[in-house]
C-alpha cells in the first residue's frame, strides 16, 4: 500500500488499540477469546463506552452491550467483534465497533434525542479462532449453539471453554438462548471492512450486504503409525501425512469443479509433530462455502467421497443468509443508493438475521485482502462508513 494513503488506523479508536495483540511472529494481530489481548480490548471498549455516557452490560453469553437510553424493547443495535484470526488484519471486527462508537458520539454531539434505545454490541469469539466455532457469542444467544457443547470445546492447548471461562471469571452456567436479550432489539446493523474486491470493482466507498454464503467447518483425522524418520524404510511406513497431503489436493480439485464454491485447508497439525518423527496422526481443518446450503453440502459430500467420509467431523454449519431485503433497500437508499453486495465471509449479523431484521454496511478494502496483515481501509472510506452508519442510525432513532 502506498505510504501516502491515509490509513483508517489513524481513527482515534484504531490508534488506541493499535498495540493490543500485535503478533510479531505472524504479523498483524492475534486476538483470541479471553487471551490477554482480548481481555484488554474488552476493557478498552467498556471504558470507551462509559466515557461516552453509555451503560455497559455483560450478557450471559460473553457479549458486551453498551446502551444509550434505557435497555428495552424496540431498540436499534449496532456493533461487531474485537477478536481476530491468528495474524489477522486491524479492521475485521474493530472497525465495526469503533464506527458504532464514533456514530453514537456524533449523534450525541448533534443534540439528537433518540425516540428509542440504542445498543452497541461486542460479540464474543466471532472468528472461532480459539475454540473452533465461529460467531460463538451470537450463536449461544440465539440458541443455535448448545451451551453444553460450547463448554466442552477445547483450544489448541487442550483448555476447555469452561476452564478458560473460569480463568477469566466468566460464569458459564447461565449460557444459552437469551430470548429476553434478543426481544429488546428491533434490528441490528453491522458495519464491517469489506473482505473481497467488490467495492474496488464498483469504485464505491461503501455498500450494503445482500447475503452470506452458506459455510461450515469440518475436522478431518488421518491415523498411521508413528515411527523413526531415519530407521523406517520408505516402503515400511504407515505415514498419515501422505493421505493428508492427498486430501488437501482433493479439496482443491473438488472445489474447482463446483462453480462459485470455496474450500480451504488453512490449518493442519501433525501429532506428535517432530521433524524427525513419522506422525502417528494428522488433523486438518476444512472450511467450505458455497452460494446455497445445498451447493455447500454437495461440495462437502464430494470432498468426503474423495477423502473418506469416516474422517469427517462437522464442527459448525451456518446456512446461507439472505439479509432482510426491505431493510437492505432502506439502508442503501439512506446511503445515496449504495451498491448491494454479497459477502463471502460470515458475520454475527448473519446469525442474528433469522431472529431480527439485520443489515450490514461494508467499507472498501483497497487490497481486497482480509484475514491477513495486508487488510486495509483508507481513512476517508472509514469516515464515509461512519457517516453512513450515523445517517442510518439517525433515520431509525
Ligand atoms: C469470518 O470472518 C469467517 O467468515 O470465517
Ligand atoms: Mn473475520
Ligand atoms: Mn468479522
Walkthrough of the structure:
- Helices cover 34% and strands 23% of the residues.
- With 397 residues, the chain is α/β, with parallel strands linked by helices.
- Strands 1, 2, 3, 4, 5, 6, 13, 14 and 15 form a 9-stranded mixed sheet that branches.
- Helix 3 crosses helix 13 (379-396).
- The protein is globular and about 80 Å long.
- The chain starts with 11 loop residues before the first helix and ends with a helix.
- Residues 85, 92, 127, 345, 371 line the site of one manganese (II) ion.
- The site of one manganese (II) ion has 5 residues, from loops.
Give the topology.
Layout: H1 12-17, H2 36-51, E1 55-58, E2 64-68, E3 75-81, H3 94-109, E4 118-123, H4 136-142, H5 147-152, H6 161-167, H7 179-183, E5 185-193, H8 198-202, E6 206-212, E7 214-223, E8 227-228, H9 240-257, E9 262-271, E10 277-278, E11 281-290, H10 293-307, E12 312-318, E13 321-322, H11 325-334, E14 340-343, H12 348-352, E15 358-363, H13 379-396
Helix pairs in contact: 3-13, 9-10
Bound molecules: glyoxylic acid and manganese (II) ion (2 copies).
One manganese (II) ion (MN) is lined by residues 85, 92, 127, 345, 371.
